[in-house]
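Practice problem: CCN family member 2
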Amino acid sequence: YRLEDTFGPDPTMMRANCLVQTTEWSACSKTCGMGISTRVTNDNAFCRLEKQSRLCMVRPCEADLEENIKKGKKCIRTPKISKPVKFELSGCTSVKTYRAKFCGVCTDGRCCTPHRTTTLPVEFKCPDGEVMKKSMMFIKTCACHYN
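Answer key — structure tokens:
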């Protein structure tokens, strides 16, 4: 008998023949507030395509960012957030506070969106005591563009 007949294929052997492919993260599903960003990858033990998702927040909805644009300027790419914030998700609140960067706005018709990002785990605590860990996008830089 063969070992794989009993246990299935050996993941280390599958991995050796794998051409790892990962798409870029999609744009955040919301222009303000909490949204979702997705990508597809086969970077796993069995080299199988899987969809990954992460939470994202390009900017808070309640922020009036246009009032911070200086005279003569048309955009603020990454406005400074003065105080650390807690994120909310379905009634649950992040355990830690974060001094997150958000993308600003443009008054000349251009869009201001994340350019360089990183993904970090964030723990959320719910009113019933449940704690859940979710991957979340954190913005490093934003860019203004017409498309």
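Discussion: Residues 11-16 form the longest helix (6 residues). Students who identified this feature from the tokens alone can consider the problem solved.
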